[in-house]
Amino acid sequence: METMLEVGFHYLPSEQPxxxxxxxxxxxxxxxxxxxxxxxxxxxxxxxxxDELRGLTxxxxxxxxxxxxxxxLAHVVCGMSLTQVGRTxxxxxxxxxxxxxxxxDRRDDPSFDRLMELLENVTVAVTSPRFDPKxxx
Amino acid sequence: MVNMAxxxxxxxxxxxxxxxxxxxxxxxxxxxxxxxxxxDVWGVLERRGWVVAEADGAWRLSNAGRIHLKRLLSRGAxxxxxxxxxxxxxxxxxxxxxxxxxxxxxxxAESPLAWLRRRTDADGQPLISDAQFExxxxxRADFERGAMGPRVTANWSGAGSVNPGTAGPDRELELNAGAxxxxxxxxxxxxxxxxxxxxxxxxxxxxxxxLAEVERAAGWPxxxxxxxxxxxxxxxxxxxxxxxxxxxxxxxxRHWGADGYRPG
Lengths: 137, 264
Hints:
The complex is a heterodimer of chains A (137) and B (264). Chain A is an all-alpha fold and 137 residues long. Chain A has helices spanning 2-6, 24-46, 50-53, 61-76, 82-88, 93-106, 110-126. Chain A has one domain (24-126): DnaA protein, C-terminal DNA-binding domain (Chromosomal Replication Initiator Protein Dnaa, Chain: A), CATH 1.10.1750. Chain A has seven helices and no strands. The longest helix of chain A has 23 residues, at 24-46. Chain A is globular. The model of chain A is unreliable at 1-10 (pLDDT under 50). Chain B has 264 residues and is mainly α. Chain B is 44% helix and 8% strand. In chain B, a hairpin with a 2-residue loop joins strand 4 (94-99) and strand 5. The longest helix of chain B has 17 residues, at 9-25. Residues 1-8 and 77-94 of chain B have low confidence and may be disordered. The chains are: A mainly alpha (137), B mainly alpha (264). The interface between A and B is medium-sized, with 23 and 23 residues.
């Protein structure tokens, strides 16, 4: 932690990405946008193709892990409920719960924990409402 | 990484969770030194980057803090057993009591009283006081010691003369003095509670029935059994001398002495 402060790492105040109220189509669209942002980041980090990540079946172990990480990030960073994550990722909510438990257990490994910490920061960035991939910031 | 005191990790977990939750609830801001959260907790939170100090001297939840809070809450919900995940609020707590070399597993969630004690009301206070809990558990211990519970299996001892010396239709004959004394204590306690309150004491403390079950059986409105149980437990605690009788003008018995006795 000290080293991060030394290199000038600043923690930004929290900006919870706002979900349009009342659920419905707006929330659905917002969640889909978040999903694609997370998936692009995760596919880069884990070296898994986007089509494999978005597949309807499990796929290879590598792809399954990457998908679990993506769902975990949607739940933890975006604050989406397990049901919302399930609907957005076309999975059952219990599948999402299983994925979150699995990833949480794997975070006992320090290197994996560090990876997830960095991915969390990336996720905050790509799901920020101020982030527009076409214009930049 | 800052390594928090691992010895009492669950205490830290609870304190951190409380602080982060307070921030999240109070619109992501809290005045410094406000509330019941110790200052050193804030220090740890700041070093970990979970809160940032605002210019006006208030704490504000950082992104990392919000994510960590979500993880804590989510972990509690899914019941994943990571290290340090067990907190005071976890449902099925299995306590271990060391006796000699072997450890006995104890189900602390067995009694409805333990559930009431673990739950807290809006002010963060347990639903029943220590004295009430202690009284209920003492009644249960006497009940068990006196072997007053129902017999679960069929009783064939009266059918044949398998062991005529020890088996008889009346179990009381076989009770030893300790068990008889325990039964006497139960009877005295229930008499002190009175006929209206003794029923729920037997059902909840001795037979470990749930409160909803008691309500259904007695035909009471929902969520009323808790109030009645609390009253009954208070009476019981007073009978056992666990709460002071100052309001009644006399204290619990501390010493037996004849007239004219003076402490030496």
